[in-house]
Specification:
Length: about 425
């Protein structure tokens, strides 16, 4: 027996009142998108405030762990449950199904196996246990929800009956514990009956596409992919801009950013990645402006260029991985100067994070190993030994005057010649 249905739980979007349907549709869309990359044929449906994934192909056409892993990247989901689905039947039949469910999921053998084990549905020791049982007793509690009010037995009666049958089927192996059970056996009686006990946590957040679009300034570092992930988690679709400086930065450095964009896209959906050749602008700043102001001035032009792509892509804000005080270019005074260059809101979700918090998050979302590959960043090449830590906007603007005769043309050229890579 293979459980061919997944019940998906969602949190915050459930409370969106009139917009609920729209949010659910966006979530269904993202679930479908996530499953496109998973082997197997799936049908995604929305019923009564629940989303279900049904496997259409053969039992061995899919890998449940792979399905779950893909769904764990869909923002908006809070729980993923592989369920036993059966037609609505009398309570004894539901109890039989619960016995089969436990046999399959926890590798236990029921005593009265003539009704409960249907050949391959029998015990598979160690097959799927999330605890190692051996001599241990599996404590449980049954929790029934009866959404189908025509069902002849109420939920407490179903709890009692199923609990009793489980004890009879697994004497000495299962025990009721209503306070701290090892497992909750959930039974939902709806248009069909669903039985499950494992709820794999989803990432939470809101479905991508429900909160507009923003442009991520994506470098090859640790911070910016995490920043993009955090904003996407709030339902914002992403595009990205990366500045490189060939021949000072390599093709490998660019590939690293493409790889990072792919990792972020696993959560955020398709991303347009604009790769901007920043060399001439950096050289001009280097030639004409005070070296201790290089990074700030460079950052300001990054903002201006990213904003051009934001406008093209339909984005309403920029995203950076900045955090207060992390480096000289991220002091409050520096952030004021950078912010001034942008004409649209700049979202800095990591603003109050310690570096270690950011590293922990990057490990969790899977970008860390790529981020720490040692390829040079365009900013480190032209970096000053002693950058200003308290730049003044009026002074920075005066320094930028020295670029007046060339900078517009250079920006224009950089925007026009940028390469756009579609990441999906
Ligand atoms: P990250 O790890 O994201 O590179 P960082 O700690 O190295 O951050 P900075 O190099 O000061 O910090 O960059 C601050 C922010 O500016 C980055 O988080 C990113 O959003 C943006 N940024 C920096 N360099 C680039 C680049 N080459 N291309 C695009 N955006 C960049
Ligand atoms: Mg960086």
């Amino acid at each position: 027996m293979v459980f061919r249905t997944f019940l998906l739980k969602y949190g915050e979007i459930g409370i969106k009142g009139k917009n609920r349907g729209q949010f659910e549709d966006a979530l269904v869309l993202q679930v479908r998108h996530a499953l496109e990359k998973v082997e197997g044929d799936f049908e995604v449906s929305k019923e009564q405030g629940r989303i279900y994934v049904n496997v259409l192909g053969e039992d061995d056409s899919f890998d449940a762990d792979e399905v779950t892993a893909a769904l764990q990247k869909v923002f908006g989901l809070v729980g993923i449950c592989q369920v036993l689905k059966a037609p609505v039947a009398d309570p004894e039949q539901i109890a039989e199904d619960a016995i089969r469910y436990i046999a399959k999921t926890y590798g236990l053998t029921p005593v009265s196996s003539e009704e409960s084990a249907d050949g391959d549905g029998a015990a598979q020791p160690g097959a799927a246990g999330d605890a190692s049982f051996g001599q241990n007793v599996l404590t449980f509690k049954v929790h029934t929800r009866r959404a189908n009010k025509h069902y002849p037995m109420n939920s407490m009666e179903v709890d009692a009956l199923v609990g009793e049958q489980l004890l009879e089927a697994y004497p000495g192996k299962m025990k009721v514990d209503v306070h701290q059970p090892d497992i909750m056996v959930y039974i939902e009686i709806r248009e069909e009956v669903f039985i499950y006990s494992k709820i794999v946590p989803g990432p939470g957040g809101m479905p991508v596409g429900t909160n507009g679009r923003a442009q991520l300034l994506l470098s090859g570092g640790i911070d910016s992919p995490v920043a993009g992930w955090m904003i996407a988690k709030r339902g914002v679709a992403l595009d990205a801009t990366y500045f490189h400086a060939p021949p000072y930065t390599s093709e490998r450095a660019k590939q690293k950013v493409v790889d990072l964009a792919k990792l972020v896209a696993q959560y955020a959906g398709p991303i347009r990645l604009h790769v901007v050749n920043f060399t001439d602008i950096q050289l001009a700043i280097y030639d004409r402006c005070p070296h201790d102001e290089l990074t700030i001035i460079m950052r300001r032009y990054m903002m201006k260029i990213a904003e051009r792509f934001a406008a093209k892509d339909g984005s309403m804000g920029l995203i950076t991985g900045e955090s207060i005080g992390q480096v000289a270019s991220q002091t409050i005074q520096s952030l004021v100067c950078t912010d001034d260059a942008a004409g649209m809101p700049v979202f800095r979700p990591l603003i109050g994070f310690d570096k270690q918090d950011i590293i922990d998050l990057s490990l969790k979302i899977g970008t860390y190993d790529t981020s720490i590959q040692p390829f040079e960043d365009c900013c480190t090449i032209f970096v000053a030994k002693h950058p200003v830590t308290k730049p003044r906007l009026d002074i920075i603007k005066r320094s930028e005057e020295k670029l007046k005769d060339i900078i517009d043309a250079l920006v224009e050229k950089a925007v026009e010649e940028a390469e756009t890579i579609r990441i999906s």
